[in-house]
TrEMBL record:
Gene Ontology MF annotations: myo-inositol:proton symporter activity
Highest rank taxon of the organism: Eukaryota
Membrane topology value: Multi-pass membrane protein
Source species of the chain: Quercus suber (Cork oak)
InterPro entries noted in UniProt: MFS_dom, MFS_sugar_transport-like, MFS_trans_sf, Myo-inositol_Transporter, Sugar/inositol_transpt
UniProt xrefs under PANTHER family: INOSITOL TRANSPORTER 2-RELATED (PTHR48020:SF38), PROTON MYO-INOSITOL COTRANSPORTER (PTHR48020)
Keywords assigned: Membrane, Transmembrane, Transmembrane helix, Transport
Record-level GO cellular component terms: membrane
Gene giving rise to this polypeptide: INT2_0
Database matches in Gene3D superfamilies: MFS general substrate transporter like domains
Parts of the chain that traverse the membrane: 29-54, 66-89, 104-124, 136-157, 163-185, 253-275, 290-313, 320-340, 432-456, 468-489, 501-519
Pfam families: Sugar_tr
Localization (cell): Membrane
Signal sequence extent: none
Listed name of the protein: Inositol transporter 2
Length: 567
């Protein structure tokens, strides 16, 4: 149907993969483009594990949470820059040069970060990698797969000299591979056709489609490009005032931008960027163990992207988003309870009696020794002049331990007698439940809110406004991502880890209400009908409204009226 939204169910993906496998040329195209998604996923995921070892090597980073947040969020900032210039670069010079430039920047960034001798170079290193994922329809799975790969590689290098340098430097390898593959691949047929290079576009399509299908594909390409040029030509006259005064566009923007906002502000990328750190805050002392356990969350995230392919056109966008956010609320409530128990039941501090630690008693603890009975592990870790750590009891980590100055000498002395050393969280008998909470969070989030905001934003806007509205929504997404990743550790330090997760949970509750009230169901509807729906009715309170309409049409039954709340 003209103007309709093509669906992407499981059979469509199987057909796509089968075509790629039987046609070596398409396989090369898919492989070359697929590396881009993996690269971006690796770039955003690798820092979560590398950060554990960067903090060990650079004490300035360990002491200043804003430096940790800035190192983590620079890849996101790079994505915002990439999103801003990627469209212009693609249109002006084609996707091939854009990909080559992206690979070059990625390689340079990986080398800079791997060779960094301090925080400034670690902050400057990440590159604007967003433009490399534009060629693939399975970008969400490739990105989450890249994040899972980064956790595996992080774990592999935990015993290697230089640890985090290898973790960050490995990213240069796939960038080089994609760079050389792209040198031998052509431009996209659409770009060639738009530039008047029709014969080149046709020759390229001949390598992809059988002869009996070629003319149909050329006709479709011509119609699509002409419609795009027409829409783009008129889009130059669009103002933000026009966007807001046009009822379907305004309502579509509220739904699309709101979904992108809630996708980030329920805390998904704190879970993905800081997963090993969160596990350590729950009482897991070892870097290696924290990384190993984090594989669970990254693996579930990648699996959830595949589950979404199955669910998205069976349950619908709106229902899937609402169920997803409802599950996130439950998971965040669980995490809040777990961390509240962990922080309020940490082991007590005992006066320093170990001979190898007697000269290193925490000064803040010494100054209040008369009231030292009120000190526990959490109070010890809050000490700041200088920073202090908790050396757990050698017989049982839940028994009272010693609060001492945090430095490498004391750390080695504590660990040298098989005692656990804590600087980011305290021993807890329920800390392992934090992993269950993180896993539950990902199980609910990934199949729904992980993909629904992007799909809805690709469907909900009239063609004339799709480019500018999609750009606004993407900017809100990446900007929200940056705010959350840049503030998470500061929030945990300022108000505590349990209350940080409670804050995310409250936002998720608001998100559920927003989806139920403001987001229409776009599943299976052509753009003309979506536009009419937004024009006539803004807010829908029934999950099943769109499903009933479609069923009545198929059954040739009269369509009944439904009542909606007007915006």
């Amino acid at each position: 149907m003209e103007g309709g939204i093509p669906t992407a169910d499981a059979s469509a993906f199987r057909d796509c993969f089968n075509l790629a496998w039987t046609n070596p040329y398409i396989l090369r195209l898919a492989f070359s483009a697929g590396i881009g998604g993996l690269l971006f996923g690796y770039d955003t995921g690798v820092i979560s594990g590398a950060l554990l070892y960067i903090r060990d090597d650079f004490k300035e980073v360990d002491k200043k949470t804003y430096l940790q947040e800035t190192i983590v969020s620079m890849a996101v900032a790079g994505a915002i820059v990439g999103a801003a210039i990627g469209g212009w670069l693609n249109d002006r010079h084609g996707r091939k040069p854009a990909l080559l430039i992206g690979d070059l920047l990625f390689f340079i960034g990986a080398v800079i970060m791997a060779a960094a001798n301090g925080p400034p170079l670690l902050i400057v290193g990440p590159s604007p990698a967003k433009i490399r994922g534009a060629l693939v329809s399975t970008n969400a799975f490739l990105i989450t797969g890249g994040q899972f790969l980064s956790y595996l590689i992080n774990l592999a290098f935990t015993e290697a000299p230089g640890t985090w340098r290898w973790m960050l430097g490995v990213a240069a390898v796939p960038a080089v591979v994609q760079f050389f593959l792209m040198l031998y691949l052509p431009e996209s047929p659409r770009w060639l056709y738009r530039k008047g290079r029709v014969e080149e576009a046709k020759a390229l399509l001949e390598k992809i489609y059988p002869a009996h299908q070629l003319e149909t594909e050329m006709q479709d390409l011509q119609e699509s490009v002409e419609a795009e040029i027409k829409a783009t030509g008129s889009a130059g006259k669009i103002t933000y005032r026009e966007l807001w005064s046009t009822k379907p566009v305004r309502r579509g923007l509220i739904a699309g931008v709101g979904l992108q906002f809630f996708q980030q502000f329920v805390g998904i990328n704190t879970v993905m960027y800081y997963s090993p750190t969160i596990i350590q805050l729950a009482g897991i002392a070892s870097n290696q163990t924290a990384l190993l356990l984090s594989l669970v969350t990254s693996g579930l995230n990648a699996s959830g992207s595949l589950v979404s392919i199955y669910l998205i056109d069976r349950t619908g966008r709106r229902k899937l988003a609402a169920v997803s956010l409802s599950g996130v609320v439950i998971a965040l409530a669980l995490l809040c309870g777990i961390f509240y128990h962990t922080t309020t039941n940490s082991p007590q501090v005992t006066p320093t009696v170990s001979s190898y630690l007697q000269n290193y008693t925490c000064p803040d603890y010494s100054s209040v020794v008369a009231n030292a009975k009120s000190w526990d592990c959490m109070e010890c870790l809050k000490a700041s002049s200088p920073s202090c750590g908790f050396c757990a009891s050698g017989t049982d980590k839940l028994l009272p331990g010693e609060c001492v100055i945090s430095n490498d000498t004391v750390k080695d002395a504590c660990q040298g007698v098989d005692r656990l050393w804590y600087t980011r969280g305290c021993p807890s008998k329920t800390g392992w439940l934090a992993l269950c909470g993180l896993a539950l969070y990902i199980i609910f989030f990934s199949p729904g809110m992980g993909t629904v905001p992007w799909i809805v934003n690709s469907e909900i806007y009239p063609l004339r406004y799709r480019g500018i509205c999609g750009g606004i929504a993407a900017t809100v997404n990446w900007s929200s991502n940056l705010v959350v990743s840049q503030s998470f550790l500061s929030l945990t330090k300022a108000i505590g880890t349990p209350w940080t997760f409670l804050l995310f949970g409250v936002i998720a509750v608001v998100g559920v209400a927003f989806v139920l009230i403001c987001v229409p169901e776009t599943k299976g509807l052509p753009i003309e009908e979506i536009e009419k729906m937004l024009e006539d009715r803004a807010i829908h309170l029934k999950f099943w409204r769109n499903a009933l309409i479609i069923w009545r049409r198929m059954s040739k039954l009269p369509e009944k009226k439904f009542y909606f709340v007007e915006l």
